Amino acid sequence: MPRNPWIDLLSSMRFAVSLLSVIAIASVAGTVVKQGEPYANYLNQFGPFWFRAFEAIGLYAVYNAPWFIAVLAFLVASVSLCLWRNAPVMLREMTNFRERLGEQSLRNLGHRATLRTTLAQEAASARVAAYLRAQGYKLRAGVDEGTAVIAAKAGSANRLGYLFAHAAIIAICFGGLLDSNLPLQARLWRGDKTPVDPNMLLSEVPGSGRLAADNLSFRGNMFLPEGQSSATAVLNVKDRVLVQELPFTVSLKKFHIEHYSTGQPRLFASDVIVTDRDTGRSFETTIEVNRPLIHRGIATYQASFDDGGTQLRLTGHHLLAPRSVPLDFSGRIGESFALTYGGAEYRLELTGFRPFNIENVADAAPEASGSRTWLDRLRGQLGSSAGSKDKRELRNVGPSYSYKLRDGAGQAREYNNYMLPVEVDGRWMLATGMRERGSDPFRYLRIPMDEGGGIDGFLTLRRALLDEGARARAAKAFAAGAASGPSVSATMREQLAVSAERTLETFARGGYRAMAEFLERSVPEAEREQAASVLLRVLQGATWETWQTARVAAGQTRLAPDTSRARFVDDALNAVSDSFHYGVPVYLALREYDEVKASVFQVSRSPGRNIVYLGCALLIIGVFAMIYIRERRIWVRVKPDGEVLVGAACNRKTMDFDREFERHRAGLAAALDH
Amino acid sequence: MELAQKQAAGFEPRRRWLDWAYICMLALGAVYAWQRYSGFMDVYEVGVLFLAVPVFGTLGWHWRGLRNLVVAAGLVALWAISLYHQDLARADQVFLLKYLVSSQSAILWMCALFFMATASYWAGFFARSDFACAAGRGLAWAAVVMGFTGLLVRWYESYLIGPDIGHIPVSNLYEVFVLFSLITALLYLYYESRYAQSLGGFVLLAISAAIGFLLWYTFDRGAHEIQPLVPALQSWWMKIHVPANFIGYGAFALSAMVGVAYLSAGSPTFAARLPGREELEDLMYRSIAVGFAFFTVATILGALWAAEAWGSYWQWDPKETWALIVWLNYAAWLHMRLVKGLRGPMLAWWAIIGLLVTAFAFLGVNMFLSGLHSYGQL
Questions:
Q1: Which of A139, A229, A615, B229 could bond to A152 as cystine, CB 3.0-4.6 Å?
Q2: Which 8-state DSSP code applies to residue A526?
């Protein structure tokens, strides 16, 4: 074969190692930059300039970038050439005993020895042959100018190991390329398919955005709500999609999640009905994590789950209007509505629903770990590994749902509301969280429950606080109750009523913050603390009266004061004060829900899979053969005068072979010594 | 020649009957377990149970140390289990369980014993004291017995928490760190019994580092608590993928520490106490070869599992990608040594860097990169 310098380069180990280095470096880049995210995320992360630059080099899908595939292709070419050139040599070597190795070459071997024997030449070579055979060597015997020559070898399978391991690399890369999105890329380059916008309705996707069911290799997602069916999967192509037709329809009957007592998920499973589109035959089956469905060469995996459009029935309570009717409405997760509150337009987007929330409701550890000695800590660690030793009390605190409210300027706030109240220090509160940025934690507004277990008590109080007339009436009643007795003049009562009314008005305008500002403005610093505590007592007393007056106005009875009711007033004041930072004047309470779950399946057809598996099997055999089988050769030349030359070589220079040679030298010497 | 004799001593025919007794014990144990628990096993599990007899039999036949370990850890674990009376609370009540053989206590004993072994080996190394080295070896063996006991008892405890929670303890970072320490120690003890002496201090340094992490992880993070398996991990593949991986990691750690020994042989103090450089290079090659072979198997098992759980045998998940990088790195190492005939400090440095890359693949990916291997969500 005439040698071509290009082919020499391509099949050289240096070239292969360079390719491997490029693959390794590109792979590292691919693990540092999250792959396949929505493009908007990258734009946020890198800024417009680097976003473009990274997009140009395909950093968002490194492993599918044309240059990466090209490097892989070069690697396959290089290893193939290397195999092509070396395989004949290897195969020849496997069967070749090299019995023509001359005396001089033998004397140049790294392992050699000279022995003497008194046996006749023939008997001596027979003993040598017997010894080597017993040691597992295959041999050829011959005569070279009167010298008996025995050429022996063992471990030729090592060469097969080489062939297997390198063929394995080719098989794995080839199979992998078949299953990669290379075939899809080829179709896109040819231009007969055009990806479409991901928000396009399925029925509107034109033929150029669809791939036929006989497509050889693909991998896509299928989002399937309970009670619905789908016969297509969605393939992501950069920030657009293609629709892959499937030869069968999948209908999701039910999606199950089961949990351990500790709250971790135990099972994700989808009960589905699969109907063949050609024959119309259908069957029922369950797809679980680690138990995919394989039908007509297409594997369907449980990849994830989501909300499939849970129906929520909500009540909107206006928090800033003294008189308003609660608004009942219903909607599904994923839908959005227009709402008007306090003259402002909002867009409500229902984003998520959780049927339960398992949370640790135990008190924080009473003793700080710092106060314990190391011996105590050690003792605490001894024993079983069950996780019940620390104080932890897991409880399901019920359903929650989340939504976004977008104001006229497009600014969105995110909310997370619980359906049921939770117990906080012996009182029941309804929690609703708000955050302005997705990266912040939710800040919770806690609405105290009234004695009937509802939020009406709070709302009555809230509305009365907003009503100027109600405040005035309550302030008067408070002054009459607090400053009674003959020694109190009418002027004093009057003054108290005015100051109570002003306190209520200040609080109703801006909560505790407004009161603090008022104090800062009008009271010298030295007296502020005392004034604050007086003001607080006035506020609590006047609020109590506000509540009772409002109850009477609503046809309810006055309540007798007690500690738990006083605490309710405190909690209600806190909630009112916090509601000024709630962002919107509406609280959306969840009354009822109808849960609809959705399964997310991964659907794939990978024709290269079996080739890859074959490659894997070859690789394992090859690696073990290359490492653990050593090709060893021994030559023995028995001269007529009784001199015996022994030489040995191994294609792996290890100390094991040094030892083995020592053993054979001793063994041969013993065999030749009668 | 000395080495050859030592090798021959491992096959002392006088005590062969003990080996036979060991194999009979394994076989009887398997039959007993099968007869008693076969109702709970599927066909694979029965296969694994009976395959364990020839596997552990052969390993024990060729290496007495492992035979003794199987017997010792098995007996201690069974004794511990018998103390439980199927009641998890007894781990905190029965003195011997609380302070010796409950899972967490046994693992903490393992930690303490590994530290003591490290100190002992180093004392023996510098004082050239055979006694201290032998003590180091004894302590390391004791640590391995306690470690395996701890894992076995942990396995049992997981079933006491709840029958649906029980699983083999190779499912989270804490459990595999224990496994890593044990496998690294076992690989070293094997080579010590066969070839070099005096490397115990070096190898146990790597184990001590792992133990340090383990203790921090236990005391600071409470990572020792048994957690149930999330659905992605409920697979038969986990039971073989993870241990195969850790034989690889253990062997890579061993080779790196031999690399450290090789480089420290530059100083005369060390050189006088270490085996010859050629011997160290050979040991480095051997452990990388073992590690590479098992790592190949483990990665392929991982691919088979991924095909079943995630729908693709390879999808460039960060953990997969880093496994590939580790694999390529050691493949290059082996090529350079075997094909190009590279020798010398370069290979030792490379083995050490290889361990850093491996450590990143093992820990760094979990800490810094997100992907499918972070079992936070489905």
A1: A139
A2: H
